[in-house]
Each structure stands twice: as C-alpha cells, then as structure tokens.
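Lab notebook, entry 360. We have the chain sequence and a SMILES string for zinc ion, and the next step in the workflow is to get a structural model of the bound complex before anyone spends time on docking refinements. Request logged below.

Task: model protein plus zinc ion, output structure tokens.
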Amino acid sequence: MWTRHADDTVVDATGKIIYFGLQRFLDDICLGDCCFICGARPGEKPFNNEHVFPEWLLRRLDLFDKSITLFNKATVRYDRFTVPCCTECNTLMGDEVETPVSQAVGAGLDGLVKLLKGHPLALAVWMRLIFIKTHLKDRTMRFHLDARKGQQKIGDFYQWEQLHYTHTFARCFYAGYEVHRDNFGGTLVLPVKPTFSAHHRFDFADNFIGQTMLLRLDDVGLLAVFDDCGGVLGLMERQLQRITGPVSEPQFRELFVEMTWLNMHLKDRPVFNIEIDPAIEMCRLTSDLPPKPELIELDYGLRGRLYEHALGGLFSYDEETMAAIKAGKFTLLFDRDGKFIDHAEEAAQYAAIRNTETKT
Ligand SMILES: [Zn+2]
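Result returned:
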C-alpha cells in the first residue's frame, strides 16, 4: 500500500516517490538539487547528471564542442549543459526513453513517424524531459550578462508551478503510471529543408508560457504543444493540409510561432487530473476536454512579438515587412493566394517579396 504524505506526495513501501506533491516538487526539484526524476539528494545515491540534450544526440549531430545560445545571447557548451540526475535514473531513462527515440531518429523521418504512430508515449516523454531539463538549467543561468544590472538567474522569473504537471507526466516511465492518450498533447513530425547552411544540423526553441517546443534534427522537424490535448493541431488542420512539401527552416520556425500563439488563445483549456488511489496502488493521468477547441479573440500584436523573437534574427527585413511582422500578419508559408511556398530558397528570400495576409 502506498502512503500519502501531508504535502500530498505519494510514496510506495520502499520510499520511492510515485507522485511529487506541488510543494515538494518546487523545493526539491525546481529550487533544490535533487535528482530531477526520483528526488534523491546528492550524497544519497551516486549522481552522474544528465545532459539536457542527450549524449547520443550530441554525438549524432556533432554538437559536443558547440554551444547553445540563450535568449540573452549567453552561450553554454552542449556538453556542459546538464541537470542533476542520479546514475540509476539516468540508466533507466536510457533504456525506457532514449533507446526507442534514438533508434527512430536513426531511421530519419520514417522512423519518427513510425514512433509517433506506434509508441507515441516515448516521444511525448522524451520531448517533455528536454523541456523540463532546459528550464531547470535556467536556475543557474544569469539573466543579465552584465552583472552590474543584477544577479538574477533566468529561472528566478519562472512560475515553476507551471512545470508540475509536465514533470509528473515525464516521469511516468519511472513511477509506472498510466497516461491517457489525450494527455499526450499535439506532436507534429515533418520534413525540413536545410535552408541556410549544411552545418546547422540542429535547431531548438521553446516557450515556457506557451508550453511548446521545436526541435530540428538534420532534415526532420518536431513540434510539440504539451498542454492542449491536441487542440492546436486540430485548429491548424486546414493550414497544415496546404503544406505540400518539406518546409524551409524559417517556415518551420513560423509553424512553432503559430502553435505557440494559438495555444495562448484557447478558449477552454483541458483540465488535467492526477487520479491516485494509494490503497490499490493505482495512479493515472487523465483529462477533461472541452467539447471542441475554440479560440478567444486573437491578439495579432502577440503573434508579431513571438514572430520577431523566433525569426527576427534570420533576415534583414525592409521597413514595410517589419511593420507587417509587428502587426502579426506576416507569413513565409503561404503566398497571397494561400498557396504553400514550396521552395526553400524562395522562402528564404520571401522577406523581400512581402506578404501581409495570414490565412488560417
Ligand atoms: Zn534518480
């Protein structure tokens, strides 16, 4: 029989944490230095820490000595981009999550599509783990590069509560509970045409508030919305159907902006439940869905800001294009007739062609 502690944390007879109550999650995982999976304290167990982007991925894409650039232009080498993790959890994560995903990635687009259809939980967990690790890492990253402006860390600005459910989901492989299919959110796998240079084999972006993530591994792109139960992809269906070929890198980033933006406008959000019955040792994640995904009034200014953040550095835009971007009406995906622009080079130059209509 499991035991529920006063802080809502549920442990089994051996002391293994099945479920982290919110306060313990905040104290031990977000603000403490416990193993981010099992919650062990350093010294209690051997630790070998976990790369935010798994080692096999760094090896595959030749990223070990390269650096990730954070939003404030700070850089950290990928091989030093790690979070606290015990050896035992690291091994388990390797067996349960990393192995199926690395095999799928090795088989390219087809492999990932097959994984998404056949074992979507592995991909859902893998992407959430990266999302969580990235943000946990932000506890140690300075917000201001110039120390005279303040000593705050990026993580000081987070509402960590927002990560609690994602964390609960991501450790299902450790705790052994069931996750209902609706909770997987929306995941999109699609071919991407390298646009800028062959040595940019990797791209990553995420949005903490929007609960979205973008990953490009060579010519395969992955996009995820974690907390919408698939609503956003449902709303984008017509738009996605019009994409008839591989997208360029900027087009791929635009899709990320679109998903983030729409997720921030869902009228009724799914309600996520954690059902636990300690007496019969049962835990499962379920959700109550709105009848259909609907949007509140769209804030195009917000789209403009998201767009500028995600794509602003990629081109030098003329004034008129910049105004269209800020107004939230710019698209690199479709021409004035709503037809997909299926040439990567053409898309890369599209800033000069200019299009001010976003058709959804
Ligand atoms: Zn652990």
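Notes for the group: Residues 183-360 form one domain. Worth checking against the assay data. The longest strand covers residues 186-193.
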